[in-house]
Write a structure and sequence with these properties.
elongated; 3-stranded mixed β-sheet; 5-stranded mixed β-sheet; 37% helix
Length: 233
């Protein structure tokens, strides 16, 4: 996942681990050679277009919203269709109330009407309070979640690892985030919910308690599911 960092230099650009305490819990319950957190990449303004989300300081939020307001004002001055004009006016009202385009509540039809426009705030925007910038680990976890991403776990053997995927991804898509060969040879996914895993005291204990389920390709992965993929090699 790629996050554009705007309005601050207090967090370094580059790769950052998502230090989720749930992986620490899992690592205490299942023996493995190493522990690997999910990670995100923080990029600067020049890579904003390719980022999955935007993390901006509270002070810098106004500048970001103003970019879209300026564009809308220019576009309205060029005589758009009535349908486009109505959507642009709706967006302008939201932006003036410090609501980015991504949370303006546009219908699918309205989104299609302005689909040709690359609004700065059309992707998830997370505004950070000044104090949050001094403790980036929880801030990055919040940004990750509010941008609509989750993680799933694989445990035991070489590593206990959290894998980042978009919320709503199915088991087949999650398999591809590990390796395309697993995705191509997908048979089924063995799932234990994180809640059941913790309550049972480990993976083996959860299996003994009958908490492991067999799911097919279209199963929607839940945050921090423990997953074991069965696949043809």
């Amino acid at each position: 996942m790629k996050i554009a960092l705007l309005g601050t230099t207090r967090i370094k650009l580059g790769q950052h681990n998502l230090r989720d305490p749930r992986l620490d819990q899992a690592d205490k319950l299942v023996e493995a050679q190493k522990k690997t957190y999910a990670h995100v990449e923080l990029v600067g303004e020049k890579d904003q277009v390719t980022a999955d989300a935007i993390l901006v300081s509270k002070a810098g939020l106004g500048d970001l919203l103003m970019q879209d307001l300026d564009f809308i004002e220019t576009r309205l001055g060029r005589g758009p269709s009535d349908a486009e004009k109505a959507v642009l006016q709706k967006l302008a009202e939201s932006l003036m109330n410090e609501i980015p385009v991504c949370r303006a509540g546009l219908s699918s039809e309205e989104l299609q009407t302005v689909a040709a426009h690359a609004f700065a705030t059309s992707k998830p925007v997370i505004a950070a309070e000044d104090a949050e910038l001094d403790v980036p680990d929880p801030l990055l976890l919040r940004t990750f979640a509010e941008a609509g991403w989750i993680s799933f776990l694989t445990v035991g053997g070489k590593e206990n690892r959290a894998w980042p995927i978009r919320g709503g991804s199915n088991a087949w898509q999650a398999a591809g985030s590990i390796h395309t060969d697993i995705q191509k040879g997908f048979i089924r996914a063995e799932i234990i919910s994180f809640t059941d895993f913790i309550a049972a005291g480990g993976e083996t204990e959860a299996k003994r308690a009958g908490k492991q389920r067999l799911e097919l390709k279209d199963y929607v992965i839940h945050d921090y599911d423990l997953v074991n993929f069965r696949h043809n090699k």
